[in-house]
Amino acid sequence: MREILILSGKGGTGKTSLTAAFAHLASGLIICDLDVDAPDLHLILQPEKLETEHFLSGHEAIIRPDDCERCGQCADACRYDAIQGEDPPVINPLKCEGCKLCVEICPAKAIDFELNHCGDWYRSTSRFGPMVHAQLFPAEENSGRLVALLRQQARAMAEAKGLDLILSDGPPGIGCPVISALSGTDLAIIVTEPTVSGRHDLERVLELCKHFKIPAGVIINKCDLNQEQAEGIEAYCEKHQLSFIGKLPHLTAFTEAMIRGLTITEFSSNGVRESIKTIWDNILKLAAPKPVLDRAADD
Amino acid sequence: MIVAVASGKGGTGKTTVSASLASVWPSPVVAVDLDVEEPNLHLFMNPDISAQDPSYIEIPEIDDEKCTRCRACTDICQFKAIGIFGEVVMTFPEMCHGCGACWTICPEKAITPGKRELGQILSGRSGPSAFVMGRLRVGEAMSPPLMRDVKRHLNSGNGYADRDIIIDAPPGVSCPAINAVMDADVIVLVTEPTPFGLYDLALAQQAFAPLGKPMGVVINRADIGTRDVYDHCQKTGLTILAEIPYQRDIAEAYAKGQIIAAAVPSMRALFETLVGQIKTLHGQPSMAREVKHA
User: Fold this and answer.
1) B283 to chain A nearest CA, in Å?
2) Contact between A141 and B98 using a beta-carbon 8 Å cutoff
3) From the candidates B196, B199, B254, which should be mutated to test the interface with A, based on the most A CB atoms within 10 A?
4) Averaged over B249-265, what is the pLDDT?
5) Domain residues for B240?
6) The predicted structure's pLDDT at residue A299
7) Within an 8 Å CB–CB cutoff, is residue B143 touching chain A?
8) Residue B280, class by beta-carbon neighbours within 10 Å (0-12 exposed, 13-18 middle, 19+ buried)?
9) In this structure, are B224 and B84 located in the same domain?
10) Contact: B199, A258; criterion CB under 8 Å
11) Region for residue A261 given its phi and psi (left: phi exceeds 0; alpha: psi -120 to 50; beta: otherwise)
12) What ipTM did this prediction achieve?
């Protein structure tokens, strides 16, 4: 089984639109949206949710005002300044890290510690195959744990269905959810753009891949925005022996397809479709040894 | 006044808006990059960095001699950062959230705070503006503690006190984004008029509405896509503060690392108007009702 993760460092470079297109071109795969915070892949793939599960993770401390003796020890001990006011003190759930220190030290035992329902996750079916995705509730935490759970579910589902490819849309950035999505994956594909921000963020996400010893390939999207930057990125890949997988010009068809709930490969002419197909074939070659069949441009 | 420039979706133009606001703001500001995972504001503001300080989180160091293997620490730790295997005590520094519970409750006082580097805080000047950024160490998972440290730096009396602050926030709507906007007086949400832009805008609204701050929207690449974002703003009482058109010259200036308010003639007036709009929003009660997400 191979896990391919699409990343970018910088948001808005086209990760999700390209993941959707690859899902269309591939076959025999599980599709996974690991951007649990602001997931968008479902807007194109429009999966039908078969099962919804609650994601329970972490705890939230809550003071029972009737039992609280106003001693102030909890507020003094909290390193997150989460306990505000005195009569009675109230814990700000947005600041509470769920560390349990206040619960443990409260002399009156007046603090409850409740398991947090931080989001939901789904087993779904889409027109390109089974899909695993989630929605972390806005302002919640533990996205890394939810990402790990989705990956575990995707692997279990792939095994049960005898499928040997998992294609995942990753979150932006290089922090907790990205590390959770990246560690132990087989191949990371970084979608970048020829802008100073795109280049800067590409270098950091590639450094992260190196840190976790994950092979990485690079795609330049909107490559005609700045020729010089695009060439610079290609040269950078060559210098650092990174696989340069391909480039695409700025295409307004990405937006038009998105509005119709279609992948760009479903929506666009043969030319665009062929270039994306070539990129996908290159990704599959890179993801070998286990060869994966795809259902090519003729469907 | 503290203005946080945020968005649910990445790549909508937060940094473009932040840098342009800083460049046209009528008085010198403090420009703060709190997107510590992928900070980009410096690429546009080209600050002279005069100080670079490491930021640390406190993590447990266990005195093997004093430790009686009582397991009080492993019982309380919610983050699986300490383990006892037979007689062996181990810490997992990268799992630690720095809460201090273990060394506070250890009955033998066998645990003392050590440290793990989260990243760097860089500060300096860009023209008349002060500039501060956090940069997460590559491989470090936890951005919120570094962001808190950057905010502490802002409050540490570095001559920032009398200035307005413009925060470039990270994308998303979970803990890092909340951390970036929770101290703001006004939240500016940058979006684009596409299905992704709309979905993530609605998430951001849901996440930030409970903070009770006035919020407004900047629509970037305003002529691509559909009118759905406009309808949504009208329905939920979100003020549209500005619309940045989709123009090749704007995209090209951005690609080169230029501040569009300075590089593209028509943009200066647009951002000056935006400053006025933000100042009007400041002090108004939160207009946006909490919206139920579709």
Assistant:
1) 22
2) no
3) B196
4) 96
5) 2-55+120-281
6) 43
7) yes
8) middle
9) no
10) no
11) left
12) 0.93
Q: State the Cα–Cα distance between residues B249 and B228, nearest whole angstrom.
A: 26
On whether both B134 and B94 belong to a single domain, the answer is no
Residue A141 φ/ψ, nearest 5 degrees: -120, -165
How far, rounded to the nearest angstrom, does the alpha carbon of residue B219 sit from its chain's CA centroid?
A: 19
B40 and B162 part of one domain: yes
**Domains delineated in chain A:** 2-46+127-287 (3.40.50.300), 58-117 (3.30.70.20)
Residue with structure tokens 């009737």? A66
CB B126 within 8 A of CB A106: no
Alpha-carbon distance B225 to nearest alpha carbon in chain A (angstroms): 6
Q: Is B274 on the interface with A (CB under 8 A)?
A: no
pLDDT digits (tens, 9 = 90+) for A244-264: 999 999 999 999 999 999 999
pTM: 0.94
Chain B CB contacts of A211 below 8 Å: 138-139
Chain A contact for B255 (CB, 8 A cutoff): yes
* Per-residue pLDDT reduced to its tens digit, A181-197: 999 999 999 999 999 99
- Quote the distance between the C-alpha of residue A220 and its chain's center: 19
Mean pLDDT, rounded, of chain A: 94
Residues A240/A242/A245/A248 CA torsion (nearest 10 deg)? -40
